[in-house]
Amino acid sequence: MNASSGEESIWDWLFGSDVPEADRRVYEGHMAKGGAALSVLVDSPSMADLDRIEGMLQQYSPVEIHEENSDSSTAVGSGLPGSATGQTGYGAQDAEREKVIPLPEEELKVGKRATETVKHIRTYVVEEPVQKDVRLRDERTVIGRRPATGAPTGQPTEREYEVREMHEEPVVQKDVRAGEELVVSKEATERTERIADTVKKTKADIDKSGR
């Protein structure tokens, strides 16, 4: 009987009127292909009873309809008894229960960059005492008397005579000459420097007590 019609169907009898239309189509399509729907209610606190019931179900390769058909109705056909999916249904559930927990960690990478330092060269002037010898010539007037050697030349008169003396004195002159010069050049060297730092790692503590 079509679950989407207004008439009462088996799904109304099994689940009541609140069953979603998608679930109705899944179960109806599964049964139309020869499958059977089984709902098990276990009202027993004993784990032994649960294991016994699960063992009985495993003999017929059961398929969880909701899990196999969560994405599309195509999975219903592949989950029929006798199919590959029906035989490995529980193995697929075990794979889904596997969870991968990443443990990222940091890695130290050291590069290099060029930095610039500036050196300033400043010239300035200082005075230093120097000495240098120079030979100088002086003239000195020497006056002496002696008897006249010739005839008188005239009457005695008043007269003034001028005698010049020559003296040498040092004259200082400063000339600029080339002294020394600074040669500025660059030379490159390489060095090895060890970098110490810390990196972060993700670790996991596993509680093996099962609590």
Shape: rod-shaped
Order of helices and strands: HHHHHHH
Helix content: 10-25%
**Low-pLDDT stretches:** 1-5, 71-88
What is the rounded Rg?
Answer: 62 Å
Tell me about this structure.
The longest helix is centred in the first third of the chain and has 12 residues, at 21-32. The model is unreliable at 1-5 and 71-88 (pLDDT under 50). The protein is built from 7 helices and no strands. Helix content is 24%, strand content 0%. The chain has helices at residues 10-15, 21-32, 47-58, 65-68, 74-78, 84-87, 89-96. The protein is mainly α. The protein is rod-shaped and about 185 Å long.
Could you give a short description of this structure?
The chain has helices spanning 10-15, 21-32, 47-58, 65-68, 74-78, 84-87, 89-96. It is an all-alpha fold and 211 residues long.
Which properties best describe this structure?
211 residues, mainly alpha, 24% helix, disordered N terminus
What's the structural blueprint in terms of helices and strands?
Layout: H1 10-15, H2 21-32, H3 47-58, H4 65-68, H5 74-78, H6 84-87, H7 89-96
